[in-house]
Amino acid sequence: MTEELQRLGLSGYEAKAYVALVSAGEAVNGYEVAKRSGVPRSTVYETLGKLVGRGAAFEVRAADGTGYVPLPPATLLERMRRDFDRTLGILQNEIPRLTAPPQVRLVHSLTERRMLLERAEDVAAAARSELYVLGWPEDVEALKPTIRRAEEHGVDVATVVFGADDDPVGRHTEHRYSAPSAVEDILGRRMLVVVADRDQTVIGGLATDRTWGLYTDDPAAVLLAYHYVCHDIAMHRVADRFADHGFDEFWAGDPALRRLREPVGEPVRAVDGAPRSVGPETDDQGVDIEDLGDDEDGRSRAG
């Protein structure tokens, strides 16, 4: 509790003294507060004076001297809420006036699941018109409180979840082509993509032993992330529409689609250590050798 009170603006000693007053249940003097809270006796009266100055505590006179009682916690928290709302309102109005047009775009790496989810939550909380989310159930679940708040404020929310979700949020799509386990095997990780207002995005990959990801407001990356999620939604709508017209057989049997579902894995390294993409063999100009052949005149199409 003392740590949370410090987050709301009290000092460490003030938080400890306030908690001691609340738990006492009666007026207590400075000596008792110091004994109950661990605040040094040399500073306890200064600390209590600051609480009184904040309106978080009151002095009471008694026959045996001065005692202190707390402002009721519910009242204190409501007062703090009003103060913070007032401050946020001022900052929301004034900071945009100081903001210069961006000269550079932000890109920063996210190397832990906690960091990735916190930054994804930031992006979801910033959405004002639309929010697109793609991920596995266990990762999307951590973002649902923020996603639901966005939806309650009128944000158009669309989610794509790789697996069953018993408590879906937004315009929900369950990813079915291919199965989540198959997709994870192909990618070597669980993907998480969050895009807000086509303005900023978090893109990440989560594996058992490693997490990587990035946040960016670069328009090129944001647009790619946005259309990545849109593509999955569109593909499932097409699959539903043509389910009775051989879509399953097409999806499972088409050679080009099978090739697109080949495992990604880690980048292959060339002899010089530079990364080389995993895929069909190419010549020095990057021409796909598998696609080379003769045209109807017997000449090589590569020529």
UniProtKB/TrEMBL annotation:
InterPro entries referenced in this protein's UniProt entry, alphabetically: TrmB-like (IPR051797), Tscrpt_reg_TrmB_C (IPR021586), Tscrpt_reg_TrmB_N (IPR002831), WH-like_DNA-bd_sf (IPR036388), WH_DNA-bd_sf (IPR036390)
Kindly give the CDD domains that the UniProt entry links to this protein. Answer: PLDc_like_TrmB_middle
Acidic residues compositional bias, start-end:
281-297
Report the residue ranges that make up the Transcription regulator TrmB C-terminal domain in this protein: 112-204
> Which superkingdom does the taxonomy of this entry point to?
Bacteria
The ranges of region (Disordered) come to 263-303
Tell me the ranges covered by the Transcription regulator TrmB N-terminal domain, including all copies: 5-73
Instruction: List the protein's name.
Output: Helix-turn-helix domain-containing protein
Task: Name the source organism.
Answer: Pseudonocardia alni subsp. carboxydivorans
